[in-house]
């Protein structure tokens, strides 16, 4: 099945089962804004909890913060967002649609990469176990030609971005005959910059109102609270401040479902270090964050680092952690060495000293910062994409049917277990309710008695429930139930008194946390 079709199915699945809804859908929706449904909010909260615990509980020198969305407008002047937070946009004159020029070029490169992957897949199928992929890529004329084309485009693209050369960005699009996905034409406007911040006003009257912004990132709330946290928490460098919060960007070319939205949620940590030690900590957090992602169980091969060739004006090192989405490898987290830019800027604009007195060095300095910034929504999408599976299985009569299952990690699944009475009579629902009452304070669970047991299993598979507890007539005789395991569909008979211990073992986050601790 084409990856585009998989993505369409995934989006439909999110709507059908209550994970994600279009915002204001009854009014035909609001573009690039989404609501998380009853199951989506559970998964999203589980992701946030796992991130926060991994950053704060597992690191004694990292603490939390929850800063306000509204900030003094000078904050964004100091950070550079007022003058430099722009995207390069280009319009197609025929379709009247607007695109990000850099995204069009990135998509072009991905299409050529897909041609290489197709050639490799064909050769692998032809030669079988004797196939040497590295040798094939280094000798096949079609692969070499496509790679040469990628390298040439990439070199021009990188230089244009670094030089802020908007004319060259358009020329790359023209030279490579990039067409509008809607009109199919190459009738492009010039590339121009567009600021992404949402502006609003604060004040009781129009004359007395002041211009403020919805924050485009959560990091600045950490920087302006650096001294507050450091002094009240008696923090010693190196230390970090972590927070989870909403951010807002006026994305003109918002697309790919919840991957790029106008209202989104970030999980960020700013780690303050001595100048000169930033690269050591940059490598440390790169390793730690990649381990966190891989611990989710979505496949180690689906993650990779992508080092930035164009660095932001404030950075001296930057890399992305990318995940293999249905539409290609895409960024889910950025790790940046931001130098002392942020604190120095806020010190200059506020007139307040934002320095740390280091008792070991007996001197004061503006700390350098290592940032880890991860999108909650993108992580959510990567997990849904990695978990969504279609399997052909046999029903109770041996007939083949398709099973849709979300193979989410048990510890993060929205519903941990479903309690299912085999029949709606003979005291089975009452016994099942007893089990629900026994376990509901410790686990998010569902009780379901509607339809056949097979249909109920399929419903739970589709929402990612790892365990189904079935209550039958034998339960009334010997106090045992059947546990059905989602991924294998195997069943095991256990005593009700042992259920809590069994489930504790299988859904405990401790296993994930231990993998992150050296």
TrEMBL record:
GO terms for cellular component: cytoplasm; extracellular exosome; microvesicle. Substrate binds at residues 100, 217, 264-268, 371-375. Keywords: Aminoacyl-tRNA synthetase, ATP-binding, Cytoplasm, Ligase, Nucleotide-binding, Protein biosynthesis. Its EC number is 6.1.1.14. GO terms for molecular function: ATP binding; bis(5'-nucleosyl)-tetraphosphatase (asymmetrical) activity; glycine-tRNA ligase activity. It is an enzyme of class 6 (ligase). ATP binds at residues 249-251, 259-264, 331-332, 375-378. Residues 156-421 form the Aminoacyl-transfer RNA synthetases class-II family profile domain. Pfam families: HGTP_anticodon, tRNA-synt_2b. It catalyses: tRNA(Gly) + glycine + ATP = glycyl-tRNA(Gly) + AMP + diphosphate. The keyword Mitochondrion does not apply. Signal peptide: none annotated. GO terms for biological process: diadenosine tetraphosphate biosynthetic process; glycyl-tRNA aminoacylation. It is found in: Cytoplasm. It comes from the Bacteria. Catalyzes the attachment of glycine to tRNA(Gly). Belongs to the class-II aminoacyl-tRNA synthetase family. Homodimer. This is Glycine--tRNA ligase.
């Amino acid at each position: 099945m084409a990856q585009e079709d998989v993505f369409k199915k995934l989006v439909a699945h999110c709507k059908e089962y209550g994970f994600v809804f279009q915002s204001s859908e009854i009014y035909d929706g609001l573009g690039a804004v989404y609501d998380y449904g009853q199951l989506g909010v559970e998964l999203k909260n589980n992701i946030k909890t796992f991130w926060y615990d991994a950053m704060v509980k597992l690191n004694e020198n990292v603490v939390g913060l929850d800063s306000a969305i509204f900030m003094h407008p000078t904050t964004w002047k100091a950070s550079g967002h007022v003058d430099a937070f722009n995207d390069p946009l280009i319009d197609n004159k025929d379709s009247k649609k607007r695109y990000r020029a850099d995204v069009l070029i990135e998509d072009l490169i991905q299409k050529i990469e897909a041609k290489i992957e197709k050639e490799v897949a064909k050769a692998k199928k032809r030669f079988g176990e004797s196939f040497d992929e590295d040798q094939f890529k280094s000798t096949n004329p079609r692969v070499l030609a496509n790679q040469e084309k990628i390298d040439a485009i990439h070199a021009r693209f990188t230089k244009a971005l670094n030089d802020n050369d908007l004319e060259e960005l358009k020329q790359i699009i023209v030279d490579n005959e990039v067409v509008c996905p809607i009109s199919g034409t190459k009738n492009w406007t010039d590339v121009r910059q567009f600021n992404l911040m949402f502006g609003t006003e604060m004040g009781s009257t129009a004359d007395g109102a002041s211009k403020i912004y919805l924050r485009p990132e959560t990091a600045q709330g950490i920087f302006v609270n650096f001294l507050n946290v450091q002094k009240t928490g008696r923090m010693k460098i190196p230390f970090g401040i972590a927070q989870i919060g909403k951010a807002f960007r006026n994305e003109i070319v918002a697309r790919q479902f919840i991957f790029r939205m106008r209202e989104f949620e970030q999980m960020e940590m700013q780690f303050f270090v001595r100048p000169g030690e930033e690269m050591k900590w940059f490598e440390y957090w790169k390793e730690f964050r990649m381990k966190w992602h891989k611990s989710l169980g979505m496949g180690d091969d689906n993650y990779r680092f992508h080092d930035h060739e164009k660095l932001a004006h404030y950075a001296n090192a930057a890399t992305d952690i990318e995940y293999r989405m249905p539409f290609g490898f895409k960024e889910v987290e950025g790790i940046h060495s931001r130098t002392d830019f942020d604190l120095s800027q806020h010190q200059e604009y506020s007139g307040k000293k934002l320095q740390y007195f280091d008792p070991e060095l007996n001197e004061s300095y503006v700390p350098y910062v290592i940032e880890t910034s991860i999108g909650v929504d993108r992580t959510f999408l990567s997990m849904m994409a990695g978990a969504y599976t279609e399997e052909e299985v046999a029903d109770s009569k041996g007939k083949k049917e398709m099973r849709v299952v979300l193979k989410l990690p048990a510890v993060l699944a929205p519903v941990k277990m479903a309690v299912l009475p085999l029949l709606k009579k003979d005291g089975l629902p009452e016994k099942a309710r007893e089990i629900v009452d026994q376990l509901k304070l410790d686990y998010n669970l569902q009780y379901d008695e509607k339809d056949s047991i097979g249909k109920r299993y399929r419903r739970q598979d589709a929402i990612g429930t790892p365990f189904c507890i079935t209550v039958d007539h034998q339960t009334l005789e010997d106090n045992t139930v059947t546990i059905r395991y989602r991924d294998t569909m195997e069943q095991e008979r256990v005593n009700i008194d042992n259920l809590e211990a069994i489930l504790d073992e299988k859904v405990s986050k401790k296993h994930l946390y231990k993998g992150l601790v050296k």
